[in-house]
């Protein structure tokens, strides 16, 4: 069994977990990161708090984005300048980081800092939000991030242990994951597995065409190439990751568009 062992080259660097959480989900992930790496932690808070009601947040968020009048936030107690590595956390709104983070990025100087994004989402958004962070913070070093579906947040501790060790933020060893197999046409059984994994999601995610897979210590991971139609009606291709743990139902972990 191949293992990845980390001696945590960044262990001596000073770390801060800085996050915005509307309803507590991102806070759960933030506190787990803080616990595992021994970082300082602080929440980003909007002066006019969001209610946690989905429709109310959508309406308010739309107005903020359309007007460019981003929400005012409370002053930070921690000083960005005092830290080397900043774990920057947020829920995904509109395919990217939540609106209060726009204000944070405009107000704070992240030049020269190592930024590790982490996010919670309904279907995906880690890749798009990370790309947006690179554009917004060209003088910072944006590293590989971590994301998890809100529906799976109870599994964050185990996933974060792997992520933090693999990327050098925590000492320890984890089993090295195999590469996915070559993509092949989806069988009827694999289509049924995909449908089961996506059945609880409120929107159709498309039709799987090809799939690669890999065995893990806990079960099997699948990487589906999926055809769907976007909001504009145009055909699009996405990658949807599905995991099946031993004795458990299939669940999708992320959509990458």
From TrEMBL:
SUPFAM superfamilies: Flavoproteins. Its cofactor is FMN. This is Flavodoxin. Residues 15-194 form the Flavodoxin-like domain. One of its GO terms (molecular function) is FMN binding. It holds the Pfam family Flavodoxin_4. Transmembrane segments: none annotated. It comes from Xylanibacter ruminicola (Prevotella ruminicola). Signal peptide: none annotated.
């Amino acid at each position: 069994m191949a293992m990845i062992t980390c001696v945590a080259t960044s262990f001596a660097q000073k770390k801060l977990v800085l996050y915005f959480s509307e309803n507590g989900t991102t806070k759960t992930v933030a506190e787990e990161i803080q616990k595992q790496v021994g970082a300082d932690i602080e929440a980003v808070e909007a002066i006019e708090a969001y209610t946690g009601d989905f429709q109310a947040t959508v309406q308010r968020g739309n107005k903020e984005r359309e007007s460019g009048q981003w929400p005012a936030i409370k002053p930070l107690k921690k000083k960005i300048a005092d830290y080397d590595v900043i774990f920057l956390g947020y829920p995904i709104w509109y395919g990217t980081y939540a609106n209060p983070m726009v204000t944070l990025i405009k107000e704070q100087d992240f030049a020269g800092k190592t930024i590790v994004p982490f996010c919670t989402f309904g279907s995906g958004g880690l890749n798009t939000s990370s790309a947006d962070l690179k554009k917004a913070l060209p003088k910072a070093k944006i590293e590989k991030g971590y994301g998890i579906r809100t529906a799976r947040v109870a599994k964050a501790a185990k996933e974060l242990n792997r992520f933090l060790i693999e990327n050098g933020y925590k000492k320890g060893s984890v089993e090295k994951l195999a590469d996915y197999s070559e993509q092949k046409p989806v069988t009827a059984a694999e289509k049924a597995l995909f449908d089961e994994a996506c059945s609880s999601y409120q929107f159709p995610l498309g039709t799987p065409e090809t799939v690669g897979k890999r065995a893990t210590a806990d079960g099997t991971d699948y990487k589906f190439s999926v055809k769907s139609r976007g909001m504009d009606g145009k055909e699009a291709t996405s990658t949807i990751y599905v995991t099946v743990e031993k004795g458990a139902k299939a669940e999708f972990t992320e959509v990458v568009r």
